[in-house]
Write a structure and sequence with these properties.
It is a multi-pass membrane protein. Keywords: Cell membrane, Membrane, Transmembrane, Transmembrane helix. It comes from Agromyces lapidis. The chain crosses the membrane at residues 15-37, 57-76, 109-128, 166-188, 208-225, 255-273, 280-300. By secondary structure, the chain is an alpha+beta fold. Helices cover 42% and strands 18% of the residues. The strands form ten sheets. Strands 3, 25, 26, 27, 28 and 29 form a six-stranded mixed sheet that branches. Strands 17, 18, 19, 22, 23 and 24 form a six-stranded mixed sheet that branches. It has a five-stranded antiparallel sheet with strand order 5-6-9-10-11, covered by helices on one side. Helix 5 (130-137) packs across helix 6, helix 6 (153-187) runs antiparallel to helix 7 and helix 26 (917-939) packs antiparallel against helix 27. Residues 891-915 and 969-979 have low confidence and may be disordered.
Length: 979
């Protein structure tokens, strides 16, 4: 038979196609990664901080390589040694035979793949510790020693965390090695289990014993380092080594470290001698000893020696905790001033505090944002933040506290016009700073603007008003164009229908240039927008602005800083800049109490953002940063040049931080003491204002920050600190300050809302070039005596709310579907006591309404007053004459004086006219209605009160109408709802 011809085989092409797809996918992913890295280089390079990025990258890559090799090589070497020294003719059971059959085809992959995978994980872990490593390499001594071991504080902040990380990493490498060695030897028969007997070959014994000895040696080093960590660990009483730690835990850890080293030596001996009994007994002894010495003995000392005599035995260690905590948080030099607060409001009591009284802020930054929006927004594509900022400016030779906000762009306000072209090429920036006087209001209760309008106008001087870099700037904008091209960016809108919108072109250096096809392509990939690559408006002269939030920009160029949660805009020279406060933190300061920073800075103004450093026990405001609102320039200034942590980072990133001497006087005039630092310090001083161990242990005088009385009865949010210009006892003149109050710490469900302390810090840095004023940062704590029941904010707010006359006035204000809003309750040390001031706003329920300041509540001791102006309220409160004028004394929100009041045209007094019979009758009716109204109020009969009030309003309307008729219709109409 002839063989049938076979059909030709079609070659299989699946593998090459799969490989090609895989390679293409890898290349695409690699290009996306490269695009992200390349745009980072362009961003940092344009900003002048490329060295920050490259230093971080070099550190990360170097540590990744070190971590990878430190893990992969020992793992690979251990597996190779175990495999190459395996028994050639080992007797294996059937189960191991099956394991080998399955594993053998994958052996080479596993022997190289396992070390590589573990090495990658180790490299990533090591690279994440780049900050710890660089800080250790460039560490700076603190110049202060801890009281337990006598080491420099820098050892605990910089060195100990690094050493413990290295030991922990090495322990993980050795532990994984010994586990893989055991597994490999078991798989290939070097370790056999026969009944109750374990048979180990000589090569396996040597490798396992040496590896186990290394692991125990590392554990000995780790335990030895742990004894130093006792001074930074939090205990039940204090942070730091207490009596039990010093006399039981620390010696015990030293003994355990020695035992671990001895057991490690026994394992090394076993590698030579071949007997497992001694190291196994030593291991068991180590475990038992760790239970006895490491756990049981400290418990016995604590329970039977310390607890019965805790107050006396713990006293020296509590004192260490007090002293070092106050030092670590910068409150060691707080000036405590005993304050016998007066509670009687006597006439003329404010005469010596006239300047403080004139600067009491009535405009609440949390309340008046809608007023800014309605009065100064102008177009739907502008916006103001919900929470405004407080600053101060010199106006006509006088320092004026102001409420400020930037008019930022709001793309969502474009509605259907929110196209790519408009969003990224036309509406690129906000415009202007709006500033209102903090202590004034217009006749109808509106803010009095010192700087406002479009174009910008006011009394704060000429400055660049365009805001390309703000808190709410678009994700990215493309700006810049050839010189002869028509501007397309909206500068500011037309003022009337006959005017045209003003266009502009960005002329600064604010972002990377899109001057070639490749750069356009990588940014199109970064922002997932092909229009960047295709648009004709994106030219070689274009720049792309992104990462525009001031806090975000500072954080990127200074990753070692924790930034204040608030930034604020200020006019510095002819530029509008954002001022950002930066902190250097640590949680390794010996004996310093640890505080949750997020909890400490959370209050009714807002919860804290997620923080990289949350639990801290050391803080310094080491850096002041500015971000130019026009071109985004970031400048870092060393504010605390003596901070060792900042000095360390200056070694790591040289030439990125300017000295304080480079700060201009205009900038110094707007620098302030940061609120987050102050909040942390007040949280610490709630307990650590007590400087002696005995009362501290008993917590006899523990304080807390009061809840915000304006946030509701059941709120748990703290009252925020407030910026005010005032004169504290011990000061020669008023200064821009930040203050907060203290009440007794609650015991169970009981809490007394009486004042126990008043903390203020001088926030005025002066106005000299590169020179900080001597008073800046000075903390003063007014301590009130235990038997002096000065009401706290909660008590005062409750009294305001329950007072019958106040309630009556508030009910009248609420008529006509209006809401009454209580502003911030301020506490001011004047008149030898503490004055409470609260502005009261009225807001109608319409969509376009905004709060108007209508009344002011004041309290001093147990006395309160409620008037149209602060000046009037103080006079009423202090017996008819407070002795000082408030900042709103020139404002007249009441009725307009009737014609003929005062002096006539010739300067001679006019004769009073006798009312007609009809007018007299109406006057009698009004008098009777007023009596009925007061009687109903006294009896609490609100129905009768409303009827009498309506009758009074009707009578007054008739009197006004009669007056108009008598004067020939020339009289004006008055608001009959106000008495």
């Amino acid at each position: 038979m002839s063989a049938q011809p076979q059909e030709p085989r079609i070659p299989r092409r699946r593998a090459p196609i799969a490989i090609t797809i895989g390679v293409v996918a890898v290349l695409v992913i690699a290009f996306f990664v490269f695009a992200g890295l390349y745009t980072d280089v362009l961003w940092f390079q344009q900003l002048g901080f490329l060295s920050v990025l490259t230093t971080e990258w070099i550190a990360r890559v170097s540590l990744f390589v070190i971590g990878f090799l430190a893990m992969a090589l020992p793992i690979w070497g251990s597996i190779q040694i175990a495999y190459r020294t395996r028994p050639v003719y080992a007797k294996l059971n059937s189960q191991l035979d099956r394991y080998q059959e399955v594993f053998e085809p994958l052996r080479r992959l596993a022997m190289y793949g396992i070390p590589v995978v573990l090495g990658v994980f180790a490299g990533v872990s090591a690279s994440s510790r780049w900050e710890v490593t660089l800080a250790w390499l460039n560490r700076t001594p603190f110049g202060q020693t801890d009281p337990q071991f006598g080491f420099d504080v820098g050892f605990f902040v910089f060195e100990l965390p690094f050493y413990r990380s290295v030991v922990g990493f090495a322990s993980a490498v050795v532990l994984l090695s010994v586990l893989l060695v055991v597994a490999t030897n078991y798989l290939y028969g070097a370790i056999r289990v026969s009944g109750r007997e374990v048979v180990i070959s000589k090569s396996a014994r040597i490798q396992i014993a040496v590896t186990a000895g290394l692991y125990l040696l590392l554990q000995g080093v780790s335990i030895w380092l742990d004894q130093y960590a006792t001074v930074t660990e939090s205990g039940s009483l204090i942070t730091g080594a207490a009596y039990t730690d010093v006399y039981a835990t620390i010696p015990g850890r030293g003994i355990l470290a020695g035992i671990a080293v001895v057991v490690a030596i026994l394992f090394f001996v076993t590698a030579v001698m071949g007997r497992w009994r001694l190291p196994l007994i030593g291991t068991a002894l180590l475990i038992v000893t760790s239970l006895l010495i490491g756990t049981l003995y400290p418990w016995v000392v604590q329970r039977f020696q310390v607890d019965p005599n805790a107050k006396s035995l713990e006293a020296p260690f509590i004192q260490r905790n007090i002293d070092l905590t106050r030092d670590a948080y910068g409150v060691a030099d707080v000036e405590e001033i005993p304050f016998e607060a007066k509670t009687d409001a006597e006439p003329g009591a404010l005469r010596s505090d006239a300047e403080t009284t004139a600067n009491i802020r009535l405009m609440d930054p949390l309340v008046i944002s809608p007023a800014f929006q309605q009065l100064e927004q102008f177009r739907q594509y502008y916006q103001f933040p919900k929470q405004l900022d407080v600053d101060r400016y010199e106006v006509d030779g006088t320092t004026q506290d102001t409420v400020v906000a930037v008019r930022d762009v709001k793309l969502s306000g474009l509605g259907d016009a929110e196209t790519w072209y408009n969003s990224h090429l036309v509406y690129t920036h906000g415009y202007g700073l709006v500033a209102a006087a903090g202590n004034q209001r217009s006749v109808d209760g509106q803010p009095v603007f010192l700087e406002s309008g479009i174009p910008q106008a006011g009394s704060l001087g000429e400055f660049e008003p365009r805001v390309y870099f703000g808190e709410n700037s678009p994700q990215y904008s493309i700006v810049g164009a050839p010189k002869d091209s028509e501007p397309i960016e909206l500068d500011y809108p037309a003022g009337s229908d006959n005017e045209e919108q003003t266009q502009t072109t960005f002329s600064g250096d604010g972002g990377p240039k899109l001057d070639n096809i490749f750069t356009k392509l990588v940014y199109a990939l970064k922002f997932q927008s092909e229009q960047i690559f295709l648009s004709d408006q994106v030219t070689d002269d274009s720049q792309i602005l992104y990462d525009r939030d001031p806090i975000q920009r500072v954080q990127k160029v200074a990753p070692y800083l924790t930034l204040d949660s608030e930034t604020y805009p200020s006019i510095v020279g002819d530029r509008l800049v954002w001022i950002v406060d930066g902190y250097t933190l640590s949680d390794q300061y010996p004996y310093s109490n640890k505080v949750s920073m997020s909890e400490a800075i959370a209050d009714s103004e807002g919860l804290a953002p997620a923080l990289a450093f949350d639990e801290i026990n050391y803080i310094r405001n080491s850096v002041k940063a500015t971000v130019d609102a026009y071109d985004g320039t970031v400048t870092l200034y060393a504010w605390d040049e003596e901070d060792p942590i900042l000095q360390t980072w200056q070694k790591i990133f040289p030439s990125t931080i300017e000295p304080m001497s480079k700060m201009s006087g205009d900038l110094m005039a707007h620098v302030r003491y940061p609120s987050d630092l102050f909040k942390v310090q007040r949280a610490v001083l709630g307990r650590y204002h007590v400087t002696e161990a005995s009362p501290f242990y008993s917590r006899e005088d523990a304080w807390t920050t009061p809840k915000d009385p304006t946030a509701g009865a059941n709120t748990a949010l703290l009252q925020p600190p407030y910026y005010l210009t005032m004169q504290m006892p011990g000061q020669d003149a008023p200064a821009y300050s930040l203050y907060s109050t203290f009440i007794p710490e609650a015991r169970g469900d009981e809490s007394r809302n009486v004042l126990r302390g008043y903390l203020a810090v001088d926030s005025d840095a002066g106005a000299a070039d590169g020179e900080r004023s001597d008073g800046y940062g000075k903390l003063r704590l007014l301590t009130l005596p235990e038997d002096d029941n000065v009401p706290g904010p909660g008590q005062v707010q409750a009294k305001f709310n329950s007072d019958p006359s106040v309630s009556q006035s508030l009910n009248l204000l609420k008529q006509g579907q209006s809401d009454v809003i209580n502003g911030n309750l301020l506490t001011v040390p004047v008149g030898g006591g503490l004055l409470y001031v609260q502005p009261v706003y009225v807001k109608s329920t319409g969509d376009t309404s905004y709060p108007l300041l209508q009344k002011v509540l004041v309290a001093f001791g147990d006395q309160i007053a409620f008037q149209d102006t602060l000046d009037q309220a103080l006079d009423v409160l202090f017996g008819g004459d407070s002795g000082a004028s408030a900042g709103d004394n020139e404002v007249e929100p009441g009725e307009t004086p009737a014609p003929g009041d005062g002096e006539g045209d010739g300067g001679s007094p006019t004769s009073p006219e006798t009312p007609s019979d009809e007018m007299q009758a109406l006057l009698n009716q009004a008098a009777q209605a007023l009596k009925d109204k007061q009687a109903a109020l006294a009896e609490g009969d609100w129905v009768a009160y409303g009827a009498a009030d309506a009758k009074l309003a009707e009578t007054i309307s008739k009197m006004i109408a009669l007056t108009d008729e008598t004067q020939g219709g020339t009289g004006g109409t008055e608001d009959s709802g106000r008495e």
